[in-house]
Specification:
The complex is a heterodimer of chains A (204) and B (204). Chain A has 204 residues and is mostly helical. Helices cover 75% and strands 0% of the residues of chain A. In chain A, helix 3 packs across helix 4 (81-104) and helix 6 (127-145) crosses helix 9. Chain B is rod-shaped, with a radius of gyration of 31 Å. In chain B, strand 7 (190-192) and strand 8 form a beta hairpin. In chain B, strands 3, 5, 6, 7 and 8 form a 5-stranded antiparallel sheet that branches. By secondary structure, chain B is α+β, with helices and mostly antiparallel strands. Helices cover 32% and strands 25% of the residues of chain B. Chain B contains 5 helices and 8 strands. Chain B has helices at residues 4-19, 29-37, 39-53, 65-81, 85-93; strands at 109-115, 118-126, 133-137, 157-165, 169-176, 180-182, 190-192, 198-203. Classes of the chains: A mainly alpha (204), B alpha+beta (204). Chains A and B meet through helix 2, helix 3, helix 6, helix 7 and helix 9 of A and helix 1, helix 3 and helix 4 of B.
């Protein structure tokens, strides 16, 4: 549930979005640049969690904005922009994810591949802590990738991106009750997935 | 290898957390103490906390991503808008009219009458090969579904009569077959649309 402060902030952003879209449709190039700056971080995060690969996520963000821009003349100014943008994003990410899965079927990926080769820590104060954090995040990502796709989408939008239940429902075209139920079930499944996947990690 | 503490203590605790809405705080002391000496449980526990807190899994894009998106949009917009009027003139001059004949521009637009603050504008476009033509502009939020031109004689002369508010400066383009955006070839005033294309201007 959004707090009052966050709700007011969201309403302000909705208004800013609509002004920017109006300006864009009147031909102001810089207006859409503002939209790009505002939504690049959240779309990248969404794409990364649904695709799991940095380069894939970066490319996906570009394609999503391109599709949104092309579809802009069909956007009705009475609507809120960000659920519309997220819907375009999810449609694109589903297609890309399906394509990736078909390709991945040709290559078997060891379950704990990521854990066997943790990323080298950046030069910092706590390299051991960084390695642990990276390994845990990769394990979390693996568990996320094991969720059924609708649960995963609800989980990422609501739990990670922090969108309101109402917005998640609008984006996915689901009743709000179903969103809550998918979120609840998704959290339980993630805990179960961690029990299955993490047991045989290195050093276990 | 399995860890009994995970199955008997940590997993039930996590399952309890998964039932609740909201982010978990720190683990109980006994679980935290066990995690200090059990690498497998520590990693899974940390992954679970990342997932159940959610927002810690947001991923930041590289700093330059938004700029790269904007640059790509500017490039693609030029491509999307092609052929522009300048391109058409070159094509016509070269007599390469076979493929682009649909946009051979013979336009008339005139103001028919003014009453009660509204002006009737008659737009005509010669586009013999077009299957559909819409006019999109400031007055219809650039929505292609709102003002479709008609070709009553079936001879490629598309037309529409609009009643627009007097005293406004309105930008517009034609959309041919839902995909080719062109300015009005003989509108007296054309402006850069900010994306590498051209919009026509109605001053009424």
């Amino acid at each position: 549930m959004l707090g009052e402060g966050r709700l007011a902030e969201r309403q302000f952003e909705d208004t800013q979005d609509l002004l920017a879209i109006q300006e864009t449709l009147r031909g102001d190039r810089r207006a859409f640049d503002g939209v790009v700056r505002r939504y690049t971080p959240v779309l990248y995060s969404l794409a990364y969690r649904l695709l799991g690969v940095h380069e894939e996520a970066e490319e996906a963000v570009q394609e999503i904005f391109l599709r949104a821009f092309q579809a802009l003349p069909r956007f009705r100014l009475g609507r809120r922009f960000h659920p519309w943008l997220y819907t375009i994003a999810l449609n694109y990410l589903r297609t890309r994810s399906r394509r990736n899965r078909r390709r991945a079927a040709l290559r078997v990926r060891p379950l704990d591949e990521a854990l066997d080769v943790p990323a080298a820590p950046a030069a910092g104060a706590d390299p051991a802590g960084e390695v642990e954090r990276t390994a845990a995040e990769r394990l979390a990502q693996q568990a996320l990738e094991g969720l059924p796709s609708r649960y995963r989408e609800v989980f990422v939008l609501r739990q990670i991106e922090g969108l309101a239940v109402r917005d998640v429902a609008e984006i996915l075209g689901l009743p709000e009750g179903t969103v809550k139920s998918f979120l609840h079930r998704g959290r339980a499944l993630l805990v179960a997935r961690l029990a299955e996947e993490g047991v045989a990690g290195p050093g276990a | 290898m399995s860890c009994g503490v995970w199955e008997n203590r940590i997993r039930p605790w996590l399952e309890g957390l998964a039932e609740l809405e909201g982010a978990p705080e720190t683990p109980p002391e006994d679980i935290a103490a066990h995690a200090l000496g059990c690498e497998s449980c520590a990693r899974r526990l940390r992954a679970a906390m990342l997932l159940l807190r959610g927002t810690e899994l947001r991923r930041e894009p590289d700093a330059g991503l938004a700029s790269r998106v904007s640059e790509r949009l500017a490039r693609e917009r030029r491509w999307m808008s092609a052929p522009q009027w300048k391109g058409l003139r070159v094509a016509l001059a070269a007599a390469a009219v076979l493929l682009v004949a649909l946009t051979a521009g013979l336009l008339t637009w005139r103001f028919l009458r003014a009453e009660s603050g509204l002006v009737e504008v008659h737009l005509v476009l010669e586009a013999p090969q077009a299957k559909s033509v819409s006019v999109v502009g400031d007055w219809n939020a650039w929505d292609p579904s709102r003002n479709r031109l008609r070709d009553p004689k079936g001879d490629g002369t598309w037309e529409i009569r609009l009643r627009l508010r007097k005293g406004e400066e309105l930008r517009y383009q034609f959309l041919i077959d839902g995909e080719r955006w062109i300015p009005d070839p003989q509108a007296p005033l054309q402006v850069d649309d900010g994306f590498g294309g051209t919009s026509s201007v109605l001053q009424i």
